[in-house]
Write a structure and sequence with these properties.
Layout (H helix, E strand, L loop, with lengths): L2 E2 L5 E6 L5 E5 L4 E15 L2 E18 L4 H7 L5 E14 L4 E3 L12 E5 L7 E7 L8 E5 L2 E4 L10 E14 L11 E11 L4 E13 L15 E8 L7 E5 L2
Parallel strand pairs: 9-10
Antiparallel strand pairs: 1-13, 2-3, 2-13, 4-5, 5-15, 6-12, 7-11, 8-9, 8-12, 10-11, 13-14, 14-15, 14-16
Length: 251
């Protein structure tokens, strides 16, 4: 029977360390298995006559435009966890009658507040930083009570001024950390796909990559014109039996 293949495999990734399923993906755009080997030839004068093959290498490449954050953490040898972490916030406040009020409902971390006079022409450029002080007598100073900033009347002579406030708050988040000593572990990958025969019938296929390790090379391009594409290259290694891949079609 002859077959055609037009699909991207659904992937189940299992940790070799814990024996648990690390992730499942049915949303990759491409999945490519590639094996290479080195060849040595004996020549009959200038013509290749005998060939020896050795040093088989394998790679498994996956490309995704949507992805789970677990995948990115895995590439750094980390795990996604839920805990409280510091978040940077930026808030723009209008100055009215010499004061500005922060609208956040969260608790600002002590010592983290930074206040800048804001350029009203673009509402993005920070001008001079406003320091904690005595605004009644010193320019470019402010005092704060609860979340109300009192500003200097000379620095803000009318009601057209704005301040940009930067501060940290502790927020419960899904998070992972990249450090300089952790790298990806070993995994098994099961890929499910279908071959279609010339009678237009799909037949289930599963391939198993017995021992793979993702390369810890990560590029996340944030582009206003193009969708981010996450590309992962897995090195296919041999297992204890010397096997690298099993390809099976349901009979």
């Amino acid at each position: 029977m002859l077959y055609g293949l037009k699909d991207c495999a659904n992937l189940t990734v299992k940790s070799k360390n814990t024996g648990k399923i690390a992730l499942y993906s049915d949303y990759a755009k491409t999945s490519t298995i590639e094996f290479t080997s080195e060849s040595v030839y004996a020549y009959n004068k200038t013509t290749k006559a005998v060939r020896w093959d050795n040093n088989r290498d394998g790679t498994f490449n996956t490309t995704m435009e949507i992805f789970n954050m677990d995948i990115i953490a895995m590439l750094f040898g980390s795990t996604l966890e839920e805990k409280s972490v510091p978040f940077m916030k930026r808030e723009v406040c209008p100055v009215k009658n010499g004061s500005a009020t922060l609208q956040t409902t969260e608790t600002i971390k002590t010592g983290s507040l930074a206040v800048y006079k804001l350029d009203p022409t673009d509402m993005k450029t920070n001008l001079k930083e406003q320091k904690v002080g005595t605004p009644a007598t010193a320019e470019d100073t402010y005092s704060i009570s609860d979340k109300v900033l009192t500003l200097n009347a000379t620095t803000f002579p009318d009601d057209t001024g704005y301040v940009a406030c930067y501060y940290m708050v502790d927020t419960v988040a899904q998070t992972f950390t990249v450090d300089n000593v952790s790298f990806p572990g070993g995994y098994e990958i099961y890929g499910d796909t279908a071959l279609r025969n010339t009678e237009q019938i799909d037949e289930f296929v599963q391939f198993e990559l017995m021992n793979v390790k993702p390369q810890s090379n990560v590029t996340l391009t944030m582009d206003v014109d193009n969708v981010c594409s996450l590309e992962i290259t897995w090195d296919i290694l041999s297992d204890k039996n010397g096997d690298m891949m099993r390809w099976s079609k349901v009979a």
